[in-house]
Amino acid sequence: MKIATSFLSCKNIEGAIQKLSATDADFIHVDFIDGKLYKGRCIPFRKLKKIFKYTRKRLDVHLMVKKPKKYIKKFADLNAANITFHIETEKNIEKNLELIRSFGIRAGLSISPDTEPSRLRPYLDKIDLILIMSVMPGAGGQAFMEETIPKIKTISEMARKVNPNIKICVDGGINEDVAKKLKSIDMMVVGSYITNQKNFQEAIDVLRDAIQ
Ligand code: DX5
Ligand code: ZN
Question: Active-site residues: which are they?
Answer without folding.
Answer: 31, 171
